[in-house]
Every structure is written in C-alpha cells, then in structure tokens.
C-alpha cells in the first residue's frame, strides 16, 4: 500500500439497517472505497444501495461526488457519515477512538476543500426540538445538536392526524435475506406535535411565529408577493411528503394511473409505479409500497359482469391509524379502455423488464393495471378458475358475518372480496359443512344456505346467505378438488346433499332430514316431550354484546391465511 492510501479493517456498512456486513475501507486520492470481507456478500443480496455493486460487495464513492464528512459516536464504537452531492447518505461503522486522528489527517491531505467534522449527539433526553432536513434524511435537533435521524427513504405514509399533529409511518427492513419473524423490534410510526403557524410566500420563503415551527415549502399556487398564513404542521407534513420521494434515485415514474377506485381502503387513489415501489396518493393518505411486499394478486369479475376487481395481497399490510389493510381491492369498469405509454427508461436496468412489459398498451384498463403490476412485482396474477355459478358468474354472493361480498372458488383456494378480503388455501381446509340446505320455513323451503369451512388449527369461517341454486355447483367443486364434506349433524361422517337440490320435493327433503335426526337419536314425537324442570331460561340481555367487557371477538378475518 502506498503512502497516499489509508486503510481500516473490520468496518461495517451501515447505510441500510439490519445489514451486518463487515469489510475494509480504503481512502485514496480518487475517493473512498469499501470492500466486503470474504463470505460477507450474501447479506448484501437484494439491496439497492447507490454506488454499491452487491454481487462483488464493492462500494465506490468518487472524490468529486463527496460533499461532507462527519465523525460521530455510534453503537459499534465510532462511525463515518458520508454526505454525497446528490443527497445520498452513506454510513460506515466500527472505527475506534484512535482512528480519528488518522482519518482526519487523511481527509485533510487527500481531499482538498473537505474536513472531517465532529458531530456531537444530544443526550439530554428532551422530546422537543427542531427538525432539520438534509438530503434524504431528517435530523431532530435539541440545542442545535442532533438527537436522532429519520431516513426519508423509509417513509411509507404520512398524514395530518389532527390540526397540530403529524404522523409518519415507516417500512419494514429491506433485503431478501431479512426475515420479519424473529427480527429485533423496529420503529413503525412516530408522531410530531407541531404548534404555531407560518407565513409562506410565492417564492417559497416563509417565516414562523413559533420557535418550534419548522421550515417547509408551500405547494399551492399564489400570485407573486402574496403571503398566506398556514399551520406549521401542514408545512411539515408537505415537506416530509416531498423529501420521501427522494428515496428513489430517479424521480421519474414508469407509469401513472390517475383516480383509480379503491374498495379497500375506500376512496380514489392515484397510482404511481416506480422501479422498486409504487405510491398510492389519496386526498388524506399516501402510501409507499415496495413490490417485495406484494405476496399474491387476483383478477376476478364481479357477479354483475360489469365490473372487474383486482386484488393485491400485502405483507406487511398498509395501515390507516389502528386499522390494517392486508389487501388492496381495486375496481374497474369492464368496458373501460385506455391507451397507455410506459416510460421504461425510468428503470435503472431497462433490460430487467424486457419480455415482461411493453412500451405501449391499448386495451381494457383493468388488464393494463394487472399486466404492469405483474411485470414490476414479478408475481403471478391468479384469475378466475373453471368454477361457474348457477348463472355463469365466476363467484357467488355470500356474507361473512355482517359483511356482504362475493365468494370466488378458485383452483387452489377461496377468495372473498371486497370486505373483509380473505384468501383461504385448500391446503388449510380440514373439511366443509353445508348448513340449512333442506331447511324449511312457514312459507316453504328456505332460499339460502350456509357454508362452513373447518380449518387446520385456526379459526373456522362460515359464509351465509348463499342462494340455494348454487348448492349443486359448489358440491361438484368440492368433489373435484377433493375437499372433505361432513354432515351438519355430527360433522364427522362424509355425506352427499345431491338429493336435496332445488328440484327435489319439499316433503321428501324434510323426511330425509327427520330420518337423519332419528338415526342420530335426536328425534321424538310431541307426545313424548315433557317440560324439563331443571331448565333455567336466560334472558336475551345475558348474551354478551360487542361493547360488553366479556365479549370476545373472533377477529383475524382480515389476516391472510
């Protein structure tokens, strides 16, 4: 090694959290380089860190691209923060206190015009301070010292919780080798109380009447010189939204779909598709969803044959306050067509999309959206299977608890949409039970029946209010896919209900049910019945309601099976 180079060993690349990859750092006249040690490149797979070649484990930062160097105390000893001119921040941890002078002298000698700054961290423990935005990071400063940093590239959503409160939500850890199960605790949401108002002008300059207010930019269009007083919280909220977009190296989107009707969560959202994530932009909520969070996708037709539903399963789910949404349900008019041009050059590796996407589409909108999602996420889109209902539809109308929706029997499972959206794989089903198939009422046979799915080791699901005409097609579907059907009486003996279809005689159906009760020892004449003296009736008020403390919710219907 020549005299113009300085080398440090056992240094961690800390640009991305949860990544434990150690290597060597070399500083020379051309810039700063980090090389992963032998066997450490596996932890870098799946990452998209600027200037990093994950396959070789090499990070190269050119001298002309460096803007600022900082030395600070970190969990692994001491760390070097490298600010780039394009706003990117790189972190190298694992230095010792004795390395400071060597690193300071090397920077002074090799990088003309740059100095190694010392960044002192505030340890007062105050929860009030001033935010400072720099590149793709926000520093929360107390007494003009940084207390903590928030990477804007990890912001998945931000909204105004109320007049003076801003909520910021974060993504989970990135990288193919990162497992959420068993991972350490992570910050998923932080809220800032931002008091006061600020005056904004058309030129972007602003002036706050509160010491704790922060600077931001006014997005509205105003006449030159005109000033408007707005809440500091709204300016802070808009600034975070703007800075969060800088997490993408290239700000150009591949395609934009405006005003798409979303059934879950409810509202109309603009969808911006980037290379590695998509953005949902609504009036109140914005979401940033990495494509790796997409688990499965479905494209099905509603029973009215006029609309199509595109269902996207997410893990982790998106959140609105305390409500989690593990599925996106988009609805389209079946006959709505559109011509769309894709900006494939916006992708950092256009060859990656060859054969997956076309540069021009001119077909129904639902088909375009499904194809773009499929190409960018590299996930399969499951469409309606061979099942057909009594009137030829892909699904049948049903209710899950108090929610009306459509149940779709697919090739490998059941899909219920739109709310609560639920996918149940055949492999998770132990058996099924048809209930009230031959039941009668005072006016004749009941027009609907229930379908209960008994699960392996989890809660069961019961779909009600299914039209009696759909029973025969559902039974054929169960037999075709080898799903075990049990009797409603004991739920232990396989039974066929083909003799109780819509064309069977009402009296015969009742006789069969009565005979089944007699065989089970549950029958008896009215003459043999007597009053049970030990029976104590309970009033309806003894039944626990949802607002009672003793009520236990079954829950979990929104979770993906």
What labels would you give this structure?
single chain; 561 residues; mainly beta; nine-stranded mixed β-sheet; eight-stranded mixed β-sheet; 5 helices; disordered C terminus
Explained architecture:
The structure is a single chain. The protein has 561 residues and is mainly beta. Helix content is 11%, strand content 41%. The protein contains five helices and 38 strands. The strands form eight sheets. A nine-stranded mixed beta sheet has the order 4-5-3-2-1-8-7-6-9, covered by helices on one side. An eight-stranded mixed beta sheet has the order 22-21-20-19-25-24-23-28, with helices on one face. Strand 16 and strand 17 form a beta hairpin. The longest helix is centred in the C-terminal third of the chain and has 14 residues. The radius of gyration is 31 Å and the shape is elongated. The chain starts with 5 loop residues before the first strand and ends in a 42-residue tail after the last helix. The C terminus is likely disordered.
Spatial ordering of strands, largest sheet: 4-5-3-2-1-8-7-6-9
Shape summary: elongated
The total strand number stands at 38
Uncertain runs are 202-223, 246-250, 492-561
Radius of gyration, in angstroms, nearest whole number: 31 Å
| Tally of DSSP helical segments | 5
Main sheet, how many strands, which sense, barrel? 9 strands, mixed
Helix share bin: 10-25%
Kindly name the structural category.
mainly beta
What percentage of amino acids are in beta strands?
35-45%
Distance between the termini: 57 Å
Mean pLDDT: 80
């Amino acid at each position: 090694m020549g005299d113009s180079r300085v080398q440090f060993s056992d240094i961690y690349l800390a640009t991305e959290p949860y990544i434990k990859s150690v290597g060597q750092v070399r500083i020379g006249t051309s810039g700063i380089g980090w090389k992963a040690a032998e066997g450490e490149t596996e932890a870098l797979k799946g990452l998209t860190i600027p200037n990093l070649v994950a396959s070789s484990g090499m990070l190269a930062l050119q001298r002309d691209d460096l803007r600022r160097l900082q030395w600070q105390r970190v969990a692994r000893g001491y760390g070097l923060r490298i600010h780039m001119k394009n706003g990117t921040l790189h972190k190298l941890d694992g230095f010792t206190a004795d390395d400071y002078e060597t690193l300071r002298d090397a920077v002074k000698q090799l990088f003309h015009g740059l100095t190694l700054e010392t960044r002192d961290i505030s340890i007062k423990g105050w929860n009030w301070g001033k935010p400072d935005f720099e590149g793709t990071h926000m520093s929360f400063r107390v007494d003009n010292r940084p207390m903590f940093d928030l990477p804007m590239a990890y912001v998945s959503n931000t909204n105004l919780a109320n007049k003076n409160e801003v909520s910021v939500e974060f993504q989970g850890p990135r990288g193919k080798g990162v497992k959420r199960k068993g991972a350490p605790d992570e910050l998923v949401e932080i809220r800032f109380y931002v008091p006061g108002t600020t005056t904004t002008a058309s030129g972007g300059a602003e002036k706050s009447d509160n010491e704790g207010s922060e600077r931001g930019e006014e997005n509205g269009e105003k006449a030159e010189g005109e000033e408007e007083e707005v809440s500091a919280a709204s300016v802070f909220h808009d600034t975070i939204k703007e800075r969060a977009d800088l997490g993408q190296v290239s700000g150009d989107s591949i395609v934009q779909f405006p005003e798409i009707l979303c059934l879950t969560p409810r509202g109309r959202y603009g969808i911006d598709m980037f290379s590695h994530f998509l953005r949902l932009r609504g009036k109140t909520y914005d979401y940033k969803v990495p494509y790796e969070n997409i688990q499965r996708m479905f494209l099905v037709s509603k029973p009215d044959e006029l609309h199509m539903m595109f269902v996207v399963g997410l893990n982790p789910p998106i959140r609105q306050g305390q409500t989690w949404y593990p599925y996106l349900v988009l609805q389209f008019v079946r006959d709505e067509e559109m011509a769309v041009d894709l900006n494939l050059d916006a992708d950092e590796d256009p060859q990656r999309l060859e054969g997956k996407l076309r540069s021009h589409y001119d077909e129904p909108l639902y088909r375009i959206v499904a194809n773009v999602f499929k190409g960018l996420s590299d996930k399969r889109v499951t469409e309606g299977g061979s099942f057909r209902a009594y009137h030829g539809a892909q699904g049948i109308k049903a209710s899950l608890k108090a929610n009306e929706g459509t149940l779709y029997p697919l090739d490998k499972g059941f899909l219920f949409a739109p709310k609560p959206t639920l996918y149940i794989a055949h492999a998770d089903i132990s058996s099924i039970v048809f209930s009230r198939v031959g039941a009668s009422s005072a006016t004749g046979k009941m027009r609907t029946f229930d379908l209960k799915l008994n699960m392996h080791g989890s809660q069961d699901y019961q779909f009600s209010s299914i039209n009696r005409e759909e029973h025969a097609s559902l039974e054929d579907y169960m037999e075709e896919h080898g799903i075990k059907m049990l009797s409603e009486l004991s739920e232990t003996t396989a039974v066929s209900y083909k003799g109780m279809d819509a064309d069977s005689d009402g009296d015969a159906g009742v006789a069969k049910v009565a005979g089944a009760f007699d065989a089970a020892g549950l029958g008896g004449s009215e003459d043999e019945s007597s009053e049970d003296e030990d029976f104590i009736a309970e009033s309806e008020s003894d039944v626990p309601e949802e607002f009672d403390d003793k009520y236990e919710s079954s829950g979990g219907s929104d979770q993906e099976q």
